[in-house]
Amino acid sequence: MALLSVKDLHVSYGAIKAVQGISFDINQGEIVTLIGANGAGKSTTLNTVAGIIKPDSGSIEFKGESLVGVKAHKIVEKGLALCPEGRRVFAQMTVAENLEMGGYTRTDAENAETLEIVYERFPRLKERMNQTAGTLSGGEQQMLAMGRALMSKPELLMLDEPSMGLAPILVEEIFDIIRALNDQGTTILLVEQNASMALSIADRGYVLEVGHISKTGTGSDLLHDDDVRKAYLGG
Ligand code: ATP
Questions:
Q1: What is the pLDDT of residue 68?
Q2: Does 40 contact ligand 1 (Cβ within 6 A)?
Q3: Helix (H) and strand (E) counts for the chain?
Q4: Which CATH number fits domain 4-79+154-232: 3.30.70.1060, 3.40.50.150, 3.40.50.720, 3.40.50.300?
Q5: What per-residue confidence (pLDDT) applies to 112?
């Protein structure tokens, strides 16, 4: 059984049909990527799985249980966390307070333990635990957003454009962290515009085109696919 199974999902914003019948599966332990141009419906898909947007129709099952109609915080409790596009850190709060917010569904004792793990993974956050999040660099804010999502100890972590706006060296660092999290057992759903990086670390990928899935395959098949190369990898 797939860890996450999405079938025939339709999502709209008023008259705009952003997602028009997409289906995909993620198995335990995988890194799966959704790639596609601006406006293809990638963020809408993640936000719908996370319970932030309600779908028009379709099914979303996590560990065999339906997530449709389940409140966002309950979805976090079930083991599915979203690290949103644009990071959305709480700018006025410190690094430590931002991380605490990520663990709000868990007990203080659980959080104390997870916080140590997050600080070990992101030593830069530990050094800056009392700094206000708004003054962190872009890369540090991305680490904080990922650390905050990890505070709920997710089985499945959804990352929306983690490399956006980062210098190449930081992009490498973020991708190394994603790979390490996966090696330690976290299943990953990665949405990226940086298709070549995403496909190179993904077990499998899905190409989204204006609300539809146009192609699927292993990361390496898609990386070498002529159409994908032309459309998303600069030829
Ligand atoms: P990007 O990489 O640019 O974030 P995306 O693939 O994540 O793109 P979405 O953000 O999911 O795409 O957007 C899909 C479609 O839904 C687009 O046409 C977008 O304009 C529209 N859309 C997204 N959010 C809203 C909203 N809050 N209200 C109305 N339309 C929206």
A1: 96
A2: yes
A3: 10, 10
A4: 3.40.50.300
A5: 83
